[in-house]
Design brief:
48 helices; seven-stranded antiparallel sheet; 1016 residues; five-stranded antiparallel sheet; 12% strand; alpha/beta
């Protein structure tokens, strides 16, 4: 039996007392001290792991002031903080052993915009893409770009002075910060903006707390101006943390103390709001994808491309390209990066041109094309081909692929994964090729694999060596490489950190600043934070402090992961492979990626959060001498003794007995099992898969809730209930049953069975009966016309007209539909972790479906969630025993058959709207385009709607505990487009989606096959 995990990292008494004092002082935000909440922010996108004492989510600037003010009392002098945004840092910038102050949950309001003066004011938790989505209709955008833009916050960008693609023209975040609203270590509020020398002198003369900050900062930067200019290289990616140079303008007439805070990684103050410069959106954009015979050729060609007045030049090596080809993202860009006949593409430069004059942009493109054509003809520069696009959607898809490169590298085969630790070096662009060649020689000397991509126009290349952090020897290798890269960067006149900040690399600060200037950093730190409370160990320490800087030797996630037995790690690859890139934090309500993370704002309820909790759970199990794989085997079966023990354990849990397993279950239970993570995550973190396995083991110790048994048996109950649908509906469609269902079963809004049922729906049609033996006697030509419709429990019994109409459509297209007698699919069993039952169900179904497949008879199903279960979960549970059968979805079958049909006459009708099932469009990214092609073939128009998850996801939305989140998810992206459209022309592929629209939208949407039937 699963042991109780009662030994975890408990919040220290001092921090517990501080949390109580915060509440007493009027703090309105969230204070979380549970182990699971702290684990969720113990990692970022780096190799490090540091569990904090608490996580605090302020709601207002006043909350932030209270956080720091309370900590000024003598009792709480030892309290330490680190501000956190999206948690996308690659060097542990926001990790702390103290308190994480997370701005991303509540402080995400866009406060004010002024298009005439080109500025916007936002709170620190606003996501970069969220801001640009708001600005787009106004004709503006916030121009500093980064690959994590759909989850990185403005506060995080300010604190690391982030930048990325396009920085040659658009610069870094600090170039666009007009003013900051900050809270200092003592709880005082500070506003920064560019000021004249006279204004600064007046502030210094006041002799108050703020004047001391200005006096120290001004003297440190002014008195050492010549040393600063002599020390730091003239690079687009200038040195940040602290930016001693750019606090002054060129003629020293103006001074902006905010330039020190920008890039300070939260070590000087907590940024709560920022006023930002915004840029008009270019009227014309174009992209050239230039293909090369080697990565070196791509690097050496970059300076010529910059001279061609390109906005940006991004590069990708063959390793990243090949990983992209194995990911769903490749479908969206494959036509834009085609192979060159007879050539091997080992490098790619993505070159963008932009401006307000179409003629000027076209001329620049044409001039470059002439040179590229000559390069190809003369076999120069390694250029083997190129493609051009002016289509904005295509440009965005290409950058989407490039942005996913960071995560894709984590999906490499084997234990060693490309990791970030020396990945944002910046050198003069003219030195980049030689620098990278020497860098590669260094990595080759360790016999390491690596991936490379980046901003070669700015001399920044992301180099990620593949190391296994569970191997202590390779952890030492990371240290050795770090030291040598520092020396190599200095040799080529560059910087160790070009855009990702210092974090755990802060120990190298003295080497780049030199002793004199590093002392000035410490002076500034002393003025702002004399007690070293603000993200201590990062950038520098105060002058009188004896505390040390953090180091690349800091405790890493691998230290904990290696405590999990190897065979357990290997049995749960999506748990251990999560690299923290955080794509599951995607803010976009129209993205299907992790709806539970979106609606809760709780990092635990994300694939990254759940994977992290699962890893710690496995580690604690190992510490107890328990093996997860053994527990999985032992969990199968039933006995009176185990039932009695489960009852006792459940009662103990109800009265407060602690078990970390309960915290993990809380996070797992919020998963909708939509499986978006399994395809959208770059490293394919499949939460429903390991959630099911965890649940199976968890319930070997605790009693299952009644609703789980109800859901797992729905496939056996539904066919029986459908025999008397009117009677059953009368029974469930009343207030008394609703109360019983909610209170006893934990189930709400029970759907009604179809009346008439499927059997009566198709009774009048003379469809062939299912007869496997009879099918074997048919000729090959007769069997080619057979189409077996595989039922699912939801569509067949609760939306029978869809199945009936699908069969009529099949008949109308000249085929012979056959309804396969209902057999359980097992999906509900898998979702709830009844894996022993699911394995038996899957084996029974597979045996029959394989027999049909052996006769080369086409099989189709109508609901993606159930059909894809045959492909995915069946393969996971049965392996080779699954066989080779294939059940197609409606659009897959229709796409095949229309290729051999004569196209009918074109019709002119209103445009249909397609609301796709999120599981379908993430696992099968071409599905919406296929539906468009099908409708176009029949002379109809179809427009896919940009929506995320509807919030139903099987039975999730019917569970009382999930009702509020289910309704909120529907409102998030479905409510408005559903309400504003014509029901007659609105279609939804998923039963769950149609059910949710009926429940909250009071509309009855049809399946696309029903629309097609009405037109043939």
């Amino acid at each position: 039996m699963l042991p109780r995990l009662d030994s975890t990292d408990i919040t220290l008494p001092l921090y517990q007392a501080y949390a109580k004092a915060l509440k007493k002082a009027g703090f309105k935000g969230d204070i979380e001290t549970s182990y699971s909440s702290r684990l969720a922010v113990a990692t970022d996108n780096s190799v490090y792991q540091q569990v904090p004492q608490a996580v605090i989510h302020p709601k207002t600037v006043e909350d932030v002031k209270i956080i720091n003010a309370v900590a000024t009392s003598d009792k709480f002098h030892e309290i330490k903080f680190s501000a956190r945004g999206g948690g996308t840092g690659t060097n542990g910038q926001s990790l702390t052993p103290g308190i994480v102050v997370d701005m991303s949950r509540h402080m995400k309001q866009i406060l004010e915009v002024n298009t005439e003066q080109h500025w916007v004011k936002v709170q620190a938790g606003v996501v970069k893409d969220q801001l640009n989505e708001f600005l787009k209709p106004l004709g503006f955008f916030f121009s500093p770009d980064l690959s994590t833009s759909n989850r990185a916050t403005i506060g995080g960008m300010v604190n690391t002075d982030a930048s990325g693609q396009g920085s040659l023209l658009y610069g870094k975040t600090s170039d666009h910060v007009l003013s900051l609203r900050c809270v200092l270590a003592n709880g005082d509020e500070m506003h920064t903006e560019s000021k004249s020398r006279e204004e600064v002198e007046a502030i210094i003369a006041r002799q108050d707390s703020e004047s001391k900050l200005y006096q120290t900062a001004f003297s440190a930067c002014f008195d050492n101006r010549e040393k600063i200019l002599a020390k730091f290289p003239r690079l687009n990616r200038f040195l940040t943390g602290y930016d001693l140079e750019n606090v002054f303008n060129e003629d020293l007439s103006r001074f902006d103390i905010g330039r020190l805070i920008t890039g300070s990684e939260g070590s000087l103050a907590m940024v709560t709001e920022a006023k930002l410069n915004i840029t008009p959106i270019p009227k014309i954009r174009a992209l050239l994808n230039i293909k090369y015979d080697s990565f070196e050729s791509a690097l050496r060609h970059a300076p010529d491309l910059v001279k061609a007045n390109a906005l940006s030049v991004e590069t990708v090596d063959s390793r990243v390209l090949n990983l992209a080809k194995s990911d769903v993202v490749w479908y969206s860009v494959s036509d834009l990066i085609t192979d060159v006949a007879g050539k091997v593409m080992d490098g790619l430069n993505i070159v963008e041109f932009a401006g307000d004059s179409e003629q000027e942009v076209v001329e620049l493109i044409e001039q470059l094309q002439l040179r590229l054509n000559d390069n190809i003809e003369q076999q120069q520069q390694g250029v083997i081909g190129y493609q051009v696009t002016y289509d904005l959607a295509s440009i965005n898809r290409l950058y989407g692929m490039r942005k996913k490169a960071v995560g894709l590298l984590g999906n490499t085969e084997g234990k060693a994964k490309p990791i970030a630790f020396a990945e944002d070096t910046a050198v003069p662009p003219e030195n980049l090729a030689d620098f990278i060649l020497e860098f590669r020689q260094l990595l080759d000397s360790y016999q390491l694999d690596y991936g490379m991509f980046g901003h070669i126009d700015a001399g920044v290349l992301h180099v990620r060596p593949a190391l296994d952090m569970c191997d202590p020897q390779q952890e030492q290798t990371m240290r050795e490489i770090s030291d040598q890269v520092v020396a190599l960067t200095v040799k080529y006149g560059g910087l160790m950190w070009g855009e990702h900040g210092k974090g755990y690399r802060s120990e190298y600060g003295p080497e780049f600043f030199g002793d004199e200037l590093f002392m000035q950093l410490r002076r500034i730190k002393s003025a702002f934070d004399p007690l070293n409370k603000m993200n201590p160990g990062k950038i520098c320490t105060p002058l009188d402090s004896t505390e040390q800087l953090v180091s690349v030797d800091g405790v890493k996630r691998g230290f904990y992961d290696r405590q999990i037995p190897v065979r357990v790690r290997e049995s749960l690859p999506s748990v251990t492979n999560c690299n923290g890139n955080g794509l599951c934090f995607n803010f976009d309500p129209k993205s299907p990626m992790c709806p539970s993370s979106k609606i809760t704002g709780d990092r635990r309820h994300s694939p990254k959060g759940r994977a992290g909790l699962m890893r710690e759970w496995l580690r604690l199990l190992a510490d107890k001498g328990a093996d997860f794989n053994d527990l999985s085997r032992q969990a199968k079966g039933f006995s009176i003794k185990s039932l009695a023990l489960k009852t006792v354990n459940s009662v103990k849990g109800k009265v407060g007995q602690y078990d970390f397993s309960n915290e993990v279950m809380e996070a797992m239970s919020g998963c909708l099992a939509c499986k978006a993570c399994a395809s959208q995550c770059p490293v394919k973190v499949d939460v429903p898969e390991f959630k099911a396995r965890f649940s199976e083991v968890y319930y070997s110790r605790y009693l299952r809730p009644l609703k789980d048994h109800f859901v797992s048996n729905i496939e056996s109950m539904a066919p029986k209930m459908a025999m008397l649908p009117t009677l059953v509906n009368l029974t469930v469609d009343n207030k008394l049953f609703s109360i019983f269902s909610k209170q006893v079963l934990g189930y709400v809004d029970t759907p009604l069975l179809s009346v008439p049922n499927l059997k009566n729906n198709i009774k009048s049609h003379d469809y062939r009966k299912f007869d496997l033996a009879g099918f074997a006697k048919l000729t090959d030509e007769e069997r080619e016309k057979l189409v077996v419709v595989v039922q699912d429990p939801f569509t067949s019994f609760y939306d029978a007209e869809v199945v009936s109409d699908f069969m009529a459509l099949i008949k109308g297209l000249g085929f012979d539909p056959v309804l396969l007698p209902f057999m359980p699919n097992g999906k509900p069993q898998h979702v709830k972790g009844f894996l022993e039952k699911f394995a038996k169900t899957a084996k029974t179904s597979s045996d029959l479906l394989n027999q049909i497949a052996q006769l080369d008879i086409t099989m189709v199903g109508s609901d993606a969630s159930l059909v894809l279960c045959y492909r995915d979960e069946y393969k996971q549970i049965l392996a080779d025993e699954r066989g080779d059968f294939e059940v197609l979805l409606a659009h897959e079958w229709l796409t095949q058959i229309i290729a051999d049909m004569d196209q009918p006459e074109q019709k002119y009708l209103p445009i249909y709207q397609l609301f796709s099932h999120c599981t379908e469009k993430t696992a099968l990214p071409a599905s919406e385009q296929h539906w468009q092609t099908i409708f176009e073939f029949f002379g109809l128009k179809l427009q896919p709607m940009a929506v995320g998850c509807c919030g139903m996801a099987g039975t999730y939305g019917h569970e009382a505990s999930h009702y509020d989140n289910s309704k909120a998810l529907y409102k998030l992206s479905w409510q408005q487009p559903v309400a504003s459209g014509d029901t007659n022309y609105q279609l939804a592929t998923g039963f769950s989606c149609r059910s949710q629209v009926k429940r909250f939208g009071q509309k009855r949407l049809r399946h696309p096959v029903q629309a097609l039937l009405s037109h043939i």
